[in-house]
Amino acid sequence: MLKKIINLDGSEMLSVNEQKSILGGVPVQPANCKCFCYNTSSQKVNAYCFSYCPDGTIPGLEEGSTGNCKFPLMPNPEL
Questions:
Q1: How far apart are the first and last CA of the chain?
Q2: CB under 8 Å to 3, separation ≥6 — which residues?
Q3: Phi, psi (degrees; rounded to nearest 5) at 51
């Protein structure tokens, strides 16, 4: 079963519109744009770059991200 999951023969790439449909219509962030927030116990966690962190701060950029994420910040998008 695992071999079938890893094998991507015959798979299709999803278009941006299809990805937006899966994500609930929110903007799809570029692949080279990775963000993080700190949770209540000061641990670094992955975050969606186009929304604020749960504590209301702007997410930080992971090392290696281009920084060209085009932040259309939205207050609490529904994922």
A1: 30
A2: none
A3: -145, 165
Q: Which amino acid, 8?
A: L
| pLDDT at position 25 over 70 | no
CA–CA dist 16, 43 (Å, integer): 31
Cα–Cα distance between 42 and 63 in angstroms, integer? Answer: 18
Contact (CB, 8 A) for 65 and 34? yes
pTM confidence score? 0.50
Q: pLDDT per residue over 37-53, tens digit each?
A: 988 778 888 887 878 88
Rounded (5°) CA angle 14-50-75: 130
What is the rounded distance in angstroms from the CA atom of residue 53 to the CA atom of residue 40? 11
Which residues, at least 6 apart from 55, have a Cβ–Cβ distance to it below 8 Å? Answer: 37, 38, 40
